[in-house]
């Protein structure tokens, strides 16, 4: 399993402008082959901080995700909204152990 986790920031006054594109990328990505989880969450205490969490069945599925046509409009919308401080990492993991 491949996990993508991290954060990026958007100016608070641009959050609402970014929401339609965020909803679109979430919906499209969740339909992709190999996508297990695809989620963005706004930090409760730091409204402009967006937490990213994704799970993919394999690295090949993640690489295919990067080539999908819906990625271009998302990147453009994030850039137009002034997204910054992108800090995402890719991790290889097993299936995990319940806590």
What would you say this structure looks like, in words?
With 99 residues, this protein is α+β, with helices and mostly antiparallel strands. It has a single domain, classed as Alpha-Beta Plaits. A four-stranded antiparallel beta sheet has the order 2-3-1-4. A hairpin with a 6-residue loop joins strand 2 and strand 3. The mean pLDDT is 96.
Structural class: alpha+beta
Poorly predicted runs of 5 or more residues: none
* Rg computed from alpha carbons, rounded to a whole number of angstroms: 14 Å
Strand order within the widest sheet? 2-3-1-4
Gross morphology is globular
Order of helices and strands: EHEEHHE
Short structural summary:
The chain is built from three helices and four strands. With 99 residues, it is α+β, with helices and mostly antiparallel strands. It has a four-stranded antiparallel beta sheet with strand order 2-3-1-4.
